Amino acid sequence: MTIQEVAVVGAGTMGHGIAQICAQAGLQVRLYDTKEEFVQTGLNRISNFLKKSIERKKMTEEESVEVLGRIKGTIHLDEAVRSADLVIEAIPENMNLKKEFFKGLLGKGKESALWASNTSTLSITEIASVTDRPDKFIGIHFFNPVQLMKPIEIIKGILTTDETVEAIRALTLQLQKTPIVVKDSPGFASTRLGVELFLEASRMVEEGVASIKDIDTGAKLFYGHKMGPFETCDLVGLDARLNNLKSLMESTGNPKWAPPLLLKQLVASSYLGDKPGSKGGYYAYFGITKD
Ligand SMILES: NC(=O)c1ccc[n+]([C@@H]2O[C@H](COP(=O)([O-])OP(=O)(O)OC[C@H]3O[C@@H](n4cnc5c(N)ncnc54)[C@H](O)[C@@H]3O)[C@@H](O)[C@H]2O)c1
Questions:
Q1: Ligand 1 neighbour 244 (Cβ under 6 A)
Q2: How much distance in Å is there from the Cα of 250 to the middle of ligand 1?
Q3: Can you tell me which atom of ligand 1 is nearest the CA of 89?
Q4: Of 58, 84, 228, 247, which has the fewest beta carbons less than 10 angstroms from its beta carbon?
Q5: What is the mean pLDDT of each run of 10 residues along the chain (291 residues)?
Q6: Domains in the chain, start-ordered, CATH in brackets?
Q7: Phi/psi at 242 (nearest 5 deg)?
Q8: Which residue has a Cα nearest atom 25 of ligand 1?
């Protein structure tokens, strides 16, 4: 199947970026959120990104106008999904919230539409279980910042068909990304690897082995990582990391995924990472300047 129109649900950190790259790839996009102000914030973030791209000569003014012209913001779900070939959900990482959203989507939009979640850890098979189309349900795990990060993890639920996987693989190539396909399992491949490194790095800080900056520098120089585990956590969001760990604990029952005490305390103290409305992340808390 060919995907020409996409509905993106949730205009936050991930949703606005997903909407932007879909529009840049020539797709028609509806960006849906629950309040006008949330939709507007998402649209503003897209405009600002495009303005910077023009300044850096990566895009012309005309191209930017065309991209924005392909994105329509809305607070009406019916309108958002009416003619969409694919619905991509990017609302907060909470199983009940996601299930409620997809239950509310039943009977709306095209029968042939594929439905997807951008979850980082939650079971695709379980979210799909509340829908009428587990064969057409899939995980499309974009990375942050969506506009710049190359990989996409495609997650195949136990009832997702190969046809659905192939349609999404083709879409990710159209978006100029590099897909990997993984089976539905807690933390998939990327989150599982990412949080493992973060947990070991947190234990090293607790034991006084090295500072967060030295650990980050080590990860970059020893292993060629682009960012260290704490820089990554600041970018991903401390609340998002905490949710990843809680969800891994819950789904596997394995105590090795227990969130570090400092992470829980920082989130409780409004250190949510480098994003609007947050005091910052690990670097801000320790008063360290990033390179
Ligand atoms: N932040 C990351 O680095 C990152 C990376 C990969 C995947 N993810 C995943 O992407 C998803 C979204 O994360 P985020 O960081 O963009 O969250 P966010 O909090 O920045 O944005 C979520 C948006 O969803 C909206 N929303 C909430 N309930 C809604 C509903 N019922 N209908 C429509 N909109 C609703 C909110 O108003 C908000 O604008 C999560 O599942 C997260 O795990 C996040």
A1: no
A2: 20
A3: 11
A4: 58
A5: 95 97 98 98 97 97 98 98 98 94 98 96 96 98 95 98 98 98 94 95 96 97 96 94 91 94 97 92 95 78
A6: 5-183 (3.40.50.720), 191-283 (1.10.1040.10)
A7: -60, -45
A8: 10
